[in-house]
Write a structure and sequence with these properties.
58% strand, WD40 repeat-like protein, WD40_PAC1, WD repeat, globular, 2 domains, 0% helix, 4-stranded antiparallel sheet, mainly beta, WD40_repeat_dom_sf, WD40_repeat_CS, 23 strands, Methylamine Dehydrogenase, Chain H
Length: 238
């Protein structure tokens, strides 16, 4: 299955085995929907958008299980822990909140950014999260002690942060046209240079490749070891 979101407030769940088949249209958001995430078991979908809410849906039926008024601003970033127990949300109000996916209640006090939060991900340890913001800052948080552990920097807004599935490394992608590959000691390992803003990026399951997309509509595949492009698809402006 694939979930997509758009500016019409609709979330669509697609059947990838049957071309152009929509399994469910999820209606409920007011305004743009900015992020969607499946739970690890695939039974629920979380979505967030310009209305400041986070919605949790039953994937099979398309029924809304809960709508949380999570933030006072647009919620651009979501992630779910690998065990499916927690959800983290980040907003243009400059706040990160963590939620229980069993009770749908907030967990602990909010984590403050100096600017709007644009990207989030859990680390493999689950006790830490990475967040990126509009001022180019990336924070590594200890969610138990509710404090920042480390700070990393880009020159412009950070659109994506992702941890490697196999190593203690993570990537950050920014409007400055660069993907940085870091280790968790704040050491910069590689720089993948693009000609345009980098909107999203992800590691391959074996951690040897990175795929990225840009504001020019291009999709690039990179080798992690040497930091060189392996393949490119030139598309239309996004």
């Amino acid at each position: 299955m694939l979930a997509t979101c758009a500016g019409d407030g609709v979330v669509c769940i697609w059947d990838l085995e049957h071309e152009d088949t929509i399994l469910n249209r999820l209606l409920g958001h007011k305004g743009d929907v900015h992020a969607v995430r499946f739970t690890p078991d695939g039974t629920r979908l979380c979505s967030s958008g310009a209305d400041g809410t986070v919605s949790i849906w039953d994937v099979q039926s398309g029924v809304s299980l809960r709508t949380i008024k999570a933030h006072t601003g647009t919620v651009r970033a979501l992630d779910i822990s690998s065990d499916g127990s927690r959800l983290v949300s980040g907003s243009q109000d400059g706040v990160i909140r963590m939620w229980s996916l069993s009770s749908y209640e907030v967990i602990g006090r909010p984590l403050p950014h100096n600017h709007r939060v644009s990207s989030l991900c859990f680390t493999p340890r689950r006790s830490q999260i990475l967040s990126g913001s509009s001022d180019g800052a990336i924070y590594l948080w200890d969610t138990f002690q509710r404090k920042r552990v480390m700070v990393f920097m880009h020159r412009s807004e950070v659109n994506c942060v992702k941890f490697s599935p196999v190593r203690s490394e993570f990537l950050s992608a920014s409007n400055d046209g660069q993907i940085f590959i870091w280790d968790t000691t704040m050491r910069l390992l590689k720089v993948l240079q693009h000609d345009n803003k980098v909107l999203s990026a992800a590691f391959s399951p074996d951690g040897t490749r990175i795929v990225s997309s840009t504001s020019a509509g291009n999709i690039l595949l990179w080798g992690v070891k040497d930091g060189r492009p392996v393949a490119a698809y030139v598309g239309d402006y996004i």
